[in-house]
Structure formats: C-alpha cells, structure tokens
Amino acid sequence: MGDGLRRLARYGNAKSQTVRLLDTAGDTACKEAGLRPTKIRQCGEWLLFRHYHTKGQTKLRAANFCCTHLICGFCAIRRGARMMARYLERFTLARGKKPFLQPYLVTLTVRNGDDLRERLDHLDKSLTRLHKRRHGKRSRSLLTAVQGAVWSYEVTYTEGKGWHPHVHAVWLAADLPDQYALRAEWEEITGDSFMCDVRPIAPEQAEKEEEAVIDPYAKGFAEVFKYAMKAAELPPKVALDAYTVLRGRRLVRSFGEFYGVPEPANDDLADDIPEEELPYIDLLWRYAGEGRYEHAKTVDRTCEHGQGRSDDVVL
Length: 315
Known about the structure:
The chain is α+β, with helices and mostly antiparallel strands. It contains eight helices and nine strands. The protein has two domains: 1-67 and 269-315, no CATH class; 80-265.
C-alpha cells in the first residue's frame, strides 16, 4: 500500500487547495462562472483502493468525482493519469511497428498578453499552420519528418505580464528535430514568437534493483498530460475567468501514430482493474480535512479468490 499512501497524500493536497480556492472565490462567483461548488467540494470525499498483494499493485477502484478537471486538482490528476496511460500504450504499439521512432518533448510558446482568449486563438491557429506543413509536396518544414504527435495546452499567469499560453508535445521522429530551425519556422508562422524547446525523452531507470519503473518513458510523457492550468495557484477571479475561456476547448490533440486515442469519459477516472481473477483487499478512505485521508474500512476478498470475482463497492 506504499504507492497508495503516496497517492493519498497527493490527492489530499490537491483537494485541500481546490477547497481553499472555492472558499476564497465564494459560491456566488463560482456559480456565475458556471461551476457547481457543492459538487466540487464533495469530490474525493471517499476513495476506494483495491490492493492486489500477489502483484504488488494498488488501484483506485472508485471515488466520487466532480469531473471539473479545469478547477478541481484531484480530477485533473486523475484525468492526466488516464490520458498518459493510453498514450503510453499507443507509443508502445507504434514502436513495435517502427522501432526507429524516438520520442521528443517539444514546447512551443507565444508572447504573453492580457487577453487569454485572443492569445489561445493565436496559438491554436499557429499550430494548425505548422501542422499543415506536413502535407506540403515541396515543404521544407521539420514536421515532414514527424510521424506522430500528441500535444496539450497549458496556461500560466503572472501579474504584470499577463497570460502565457503554451503547448507541450511529444513528437515521434527518427532523429532529433533541429531546435534552431524550428524556432525560425515558428517565428515565421506566429510573427511574434520564436521560443521553442526540443529535447529527447530518455527512458528512466530504476535507482535500485528492487524498484520497478511503471513505464520508462512515463516521466517525459507526464509533462504533456499535467494540469491545463493550476487553478489553485491563481488569484480566484483570474482562475474563474480562465475557466470560462478554457471550458469546452479541446486541450489535447494528436496526429499520425498518436491519432485516434480516445479521451477518457468524464466519469472514467478510476484505474483500470486487472481482467484476471486475483485475490484482493478493498480499502476505503475518507477525507478528514486539511489535506488528510483517514482509513475507514477494510474488506478482505482474498478468501473469495476462485469463487468468482466481486466488483461490489462497499462504502
């Protein structure tokens, strides 16, 4: 349950930050922005973990999700984890067919501005122009060598400098894209921005022999599937204004080898459960306030192994 305890600490911290944001903003302002503050406050009040001791795995079996990942830190973490797992799976399949493909982490930015909607539209249109160059018959774009990409939008805010929208992407290519050539191409497209960053995603190795790495490329991919915005770190009014702009936008997109990976449904934020019948223990935790979870109940299902699986959630 060691991994589960670390996750509990992270979930508890995210939930407490979200509650503080709602309390500071006030229910009236939240409702005017289109939020349901009561449902968001109840999010993550209980978590049901399923521990498979024969495999050394602990899965989040169920929880009460508010499905407002742009504001709720807990749902943002869960949605990011689900997205990352699906794209890592697709990456493995792509490399199985084309082992020469390597993953590269690419960051593209546009100049800061006070109008978030205008800056996001500018970034979106510039990306569309860049990606269309893949299909040009006489194109000299770097994108012609990229066989797959997945990218996500992120926005940050600084008082005095305004909004800083940018994109984190994983590109699949045989060779390292030339960062300086990309900067020149990006400045030509945007007209006001040239800042780009390209770096290889190196497989991560376990520090100790007894430690297992879930996926050696997970750390690199995680940069793409983190928070679209860290609402709890923004002034309440700024966070609510950003929510109204980001709500309804497609914030994760892809092409080529990554195209067609389905996004998780709003209520599909729990972990995948092993299909094979395994002995397990259900562990129920309830939120105790101030970022802490307390253990509430244990149901030992190990003795039922071989008698048919039970997916009943005991609360």
